[in-house]
Amino acid sequence: MKFNHIFSFALLLAVGCASGPKESIVAKYLDQRQPLEERVEDALQRMTLREKIDIIHAQSKFSSAGVERLGIPELWCTDGPHGIRPEVLWDEWDQAKWTSDSCTAFPALTCLAATWNPQMSATYGKAIGEEARYREKDVLLGPGVNIYRTPMNGRNFEYMGEDPMLASKMVVPYIKGVQSNGVAACVKHFALNNQEIERHGVNVVVDDRALYEIYLPAFKAAVQEGGAWAIMPAYNRYKGQHCCHNQYLLNDILKGEWGFDGATISDWGGVHDTKEAALHGLDMEFGSWTNGLNWGAKNAYDMYHLALPYMKMIESGELTTKELDDKVRRVLRLNFRTAMNTSKPFGSMNTEEHLEAARTIAGEGVVLLKNEGNVLPINVEKCKTILVVGENAIKMMTVGGGSSSLKVRKEYTPLEGIANYVGDKAKVEFQRGYVGDTTGEYNGVKSGQDLSENRSAEQLIADAVAAARKADAVIFFGGLNKKEGQDCEGVDRSEYALPYGQNKVIEALAEANKNLVVVNISGNAVAMPWVDRVPSIMQGWYLGSEAGNALARVIFGEVNPSGHLPFTFPVELADNSAHSVGEWPGGRDVRYTEGIFVGYRWADKEQIKALFPFGHGLSYTSFAIDEPTISKHSMKAGGKITIKCEVRNTGKREGAEVVQLYIGDKVSSLPRPVKELKGFQKLHLAAGQSGTAEFTITEDDLKFFDDKQHAWIAEKGDFTAYIATSAEDILYTLDFSLK
Ligand code: BGC
User: Is the pLDDT of residue 27 over 90?
Assistant: First the structure.
């Protein structure tokens, strides 16, 4: 018996004598001084087969059973990733109609990624974790880090863009922030879930290089750097096996190569086979006999693959308890880290700090795409009338889109935000411009908005144009919304163009008023055939509770935009590699023929100029970036090189610049991208202030995944470092070599 065991045994006896056998076990499990693994082993040894089976699958839509006899509580999950999902009934998707479950909606993860500021991720994670904790949730189903492969994916708004390095750097602080509350982050959807069409069946065919270099790094960072306690395997298939029971992804890579010690929690309805689920690394089964969204068979829990069917296979000797015990250990670990964690804080909900966090992240994520003639920021003092046009100025965006839909305490629409901000300094008028989606309900949560409209499309345009002619400035809010066929789970987008005839409205407004600002609200790139005719364009995202307030602060200049695109805006779909050489949506198989050439990696290779490139974002001030210095031009294996550059705010107001470091390998044995993001730094600078961007390059930054050797390799030779402000705006190049 190890000393620890003796200690815990003695404690058990002591507490046991004082307060009876059951309490003594609970006391032991709650004693945070006891090593986690010992508590896990102890509980495991005491559990019956049935008790083990019971904790590895759902008992309701969002919970799994505890072990009553041992005082181990139930586990409660919640969506994720932008706010805490309202309560649904035990066994239905319908609302439980609680009156205490309205939350703060944080900006969509595309916006978070667009801040290029890991501190914003930390703020986000801490705040959403506090809300989850307040609602007594143990597992937050998020964040999502599937790579933005095509702008057609309906769920891109829940993810962190096209670049594995950016997504990795942004996901880690989110996880740590959430988990500091004793709430597990369940990172999703592992892996290759890059489209919604046929998501339950489609088999992704991808080479190992693209898998390891593009699609896995953010998950790996989530596990190894973020210390994520849970991972949600995806719906789709890879190498013919569903990701929820996938030997390669779950056993070989996640648990084998990366050493993940947490629990895998199936996506809702993603499990299809008992034996595969038992053997291929799934730890918890949720949502079987549902499509994960709105359909669900009643009380099917005993029929779950990892419920009685699994138990029967063990009893009959077809399967052993070896895998079961591994699952139970992982679920117990999850439980001890969350529900049984006695040192976790209490959490809070809808606090001023949370609203401020939502507003700040939103403001920092807004991307100023174009600003000719400095139409922005709008000077209220110089305006008598400001015209706001477009449905997205008045439509609530927190309701809809699938499982990330929320019930918010309050959502400020852009029109409200602008009207509040302007106050009586100017007249704010509104024109609808177009009619898009007048509905506003998801799973019984109603936006309560009446968006009905009787005027014809022509009349709406005519009315908007007439008003635009008389206004001092016109702000058009359009883009997509959370309806099926747009930015929505379960389906992909139906077109790359802006829907509902918005192009006509924008073109007519551009004719009518030269002070036009177009704010695109979406989680995806869209086509902008009018780009040359509109002086100012802003990417607005889904910004959550504080959407309108955050946008108003940027539009009127209180907040200086500093967001940069986390993905490429192609001019047309054919400029995107999945559509040009790859497949989307594919058939039973979808072939990622483009391999590693995703996003700007493809644009670089083919020399395709983007509508707006990855990493692009303007400011109301200007910056000068001095010629960088490099510590040395050659590096030995295991060594490092430092690159530094001075950044000066040369304008008249504070602002932030994102300095980006890309690296390209000049000659390599396998094809490599022209350049890849390897570092970035956001510098907040007062007018006239200077700061230093500093990057350290190590051998790891030079590696590629050699699929033949199944290893990350750095080849000796010459490399180029690019100092840039977007994938297309290269300011300096520096050569160095690896000896
Ligand atoms: C989604 C998950 C979500 C789950 C539970 C599924 O449909 O794919 O992201 O967490 O439902 O709502």
Answer: no
Instruction: Specify whether 542 is located in the same domain as 657.
Output: no
- The sign of the CA dihedral 558, 124, 160, 296 is negative
CATH assignment at residue 382 = 3.40.50.1700
Question: In a mutational test of the pocket of ligand 1, which residue from 489, 491, 492 has the highest number of ligand atoms less than 8 Å from its CB?
Answer: 489
C-beta atoms surrounding 60 within 10 Å: 18
Average of per-residue pLDDT across 216-240 = 99
Q: Give the integer Cα–Cα distance in Å for 519 and 540.
A: 6
Place of tokens 């509109």: 534
Q: For the chain, state the CA radius of gyration.
A: 26
For residue 9, pLDDT beyond 90: no
Q: How far lies 194's CA from each of 197, 240, 242, 302, in Å?
A: 9, 16, 14, 32
Kindly give the distance from the C-alpha atom of residue 228 to the centroid of ligand 1, in angstroms, as a whole number: 18
Check: CB of residue 353 under 8 Å from CB of residue 248.
no
- Same domain for 518 and 377, yes or no, is yes
CA nearest neighbour of 181 among 142, 130, 121: 130
Task: List the one residue out of 275, 260, 251 whose CA is nearest residue 224.
Answer: 260
Confidence of residue 713 (pLDDT cuts 50, 70, 90): very high
Residues 384 and 471 sit within 8 Å (Cβ to Cβ): no
Q: What's the residue count for the chain?
A: 739
Decide if 336 is inside a domain: no
CB of 266 within 6 A of ligand 1: the answer is no
Count of domains in the chain?
2
Among 403, 488, 491, 492, name the best residue to mutate to test ligand 1's pocket (greatest count of ligand atoms within 8 A of Cβ): 403
Nearest one of 647, 595, 602 to 625, comparing CA atoms = 647
CB of 633 within 8 A of CB of 735?
A: yes
Range of the domain at 566: 368-579
Residues 429 and 573 in one domain: yes
The reported pLDDT for the residue numbered 23 is 59
641 DSSP β-pair partners? 697
Nearest of 584, 670, 705 to residue 156 by alpha carbon: 584
On the question of pLDDT at 2 being above 50, the answer is no
Distance from Cα 257 to the centre of ligand 1, integer Å: 26
Evaluate: CB of 665 within 6 angstroms of ligand 1. Answer: no
Burial of 263 (0-12, 13-18, 19+ CB in 10 A): buried
Residue among 120, 234, 135 nearest 169 (CA): 120
Q: Tell if the pTM clears 0.85, that is, is over it.
A: yes
| Cβ of residue 188 lying under 6 Å from some atom of ligand 1 | yes
